[in-house]
Amino acid sequence: MIEKKHEQSEQPDYYKSNGLSPMDAFEKGLLSKEEFIGFIKGNVIKYSVRAGKKDDAVKDIGKAIDYLGWLKKVMGQ
Question: What are 37-55's pLDDT values in tens digits?
Answer without folding.
Answer: 999 999 999 999 999 998 7
